[in-house]
Amino acid sequence: MSVGLYCFLNLIIIYLVILFFDGSTTRSVLYAILLYAISLVIALSPLGIKILCWRSKAAELTRQDEESRFSLIYKEVYRKAVILNPDIPSLENLHVYIRENDSVQSAGIGENVLFITSGLLRMPENQIMAVLGHELGHFSNGETYLTLLSTVGSLIIYVIIYAISIALFVALLILGIFWRLLCLVASIVSPEMAFFGGLGQLGGLITSAGGLFKKVGSLLASGWSKLGNFIMHHSNLENDYEADEFAVNLGYGRDLCKTIDENRGGAEGFFKQTISSDADAEARIGNMQNNLGVDYKNLKVV
User: Fold this and answer.
1) Could you tell me the residue ranges of all domains in the chain?
2) Exposure of 98 by Cβ count < 10 A (0-12 exposed, 13-18 middle, 19+ buried)?
3) Which phi and psi angles does 115 have, rounded to 5°?
């Protein structure tokens, strides 16, 4: 399943939810597309960036020493990237956000947003350059927009599922409380209706059912997001090949192989674009060695 198909499924689910409440096929299609478009506009805005930071537990670089070092490294990589591909999107004002994590991860998203981990900043300068060269390859190929499209769609579905489950929970909670009160009042008002007191336990069952709906909704919302992350990770190998080639052409092939070889797994959310699983890492390193002429050897296995 490709990322494009996952985005389409997101749109279909949004359409079906709107159709359920609206009933008009034409209006539901328009509303679904409009909701997706508005969400994309918001995602590209400062508010959208804050939401993405919240989801990825990232924040702006605040330490001057880290910001200064990263800026110098990035400007050098970007200078080479512009020479290699003059048509590369203008990324001089790249917005960088960092997540405190010892693993080495990075992910470009949208027009000019890059998420990195603190583990990346602790790497040697040449390996940071290699990772940035790879990410600029994704920006150059326009793949970061597809990542944004997928992320936004996943977030909409998450909100819809969670909102429905919360609404059902609240409705059943109120209904359960109302039923228990009704049974209590009925049993007090008339002795002939004393059996209603026993039926009050049904209110507790209704309330419990509401809690169950809430838990199921939370699991479904979380599961859909994880499915999106899984699809993005396993659909991006060809895109990673292209981004790797871009980094190789910048002169960072050996350092990129070394970084991938030494830092596998541990990625979360959409931090799965650069550092791969063991299988993908082997494939990417092999592709750079066999097809791109990178002379890399892991001395630990030679």
Assistant:
1) 3-56
2) buried
3) -105, 135
